[in-house]
Amino acid sequence: MTQSAQMPAWMQARLSGTQQAPGEVEIAPDEVQPFALFVALGTQWRWCGMSGRRLGLDYAAIPATAAMQGVTMHPALFHDLRVMEHAALNALAETQKR
């Protein structure tokens, strides 16, 4: 007996030339869990009271948020969160320059 796999819809769309909707982002399967956790942490930023700028995620909130999401924390997942945090802080800094 042979097994076959269907090409994911996003791959079929890319091959057929279909464009993504504006603002739509493609997420690889192994990025879904870190991204979902990062989004769930959206209200868990530390702020500077004087400047009103975000300083970074409140790391103390990560384990509780992960547990509520049914996610087991591990070093690679924490690294992924830190990469997204850094990228978000850079993007926010760019928008504040304008």
Can you give a write-up of this model?
The protein is mainly alpha-helical. It is built from four helices and two strands; from the N terminus they run ααββαα. The protein has a two-stranded antiparallel sheet. A hairpin with a 6-residue loop joins strand 1 (45-47) and strand 2. Helix 2 (32-40) packs across helix 4 (75-97). The protein is flat. It starts with 8 loop residues before the first helix and ends with a helix. Mean pLDDT is 83; it is low at 1-5.
Key words describing this protein structure:
98 residues, mainly alpha, flat
Number of spatially distinct domains: 1
Over the alpha carbons, how many angstroms does the gyration radius reach? 18 Å
State the distance separating the first and last CA atoms: 61 Å
| Side-by-side strand order of the widest sheet | 1-2
Spatial shape: flat
Low-confidence stretches: 1-5
Mean pLDDT: 83
Tally the helices.
Answer: 4
By helix and strand content, what is the structural category? Answer: mainly alpha
Q: Would you count the extended β strands for me? A: 2
Briefly summarize what is shown.
This protein is mostly helical and 98 residues long. Helix content is 49%, strand content 7%.
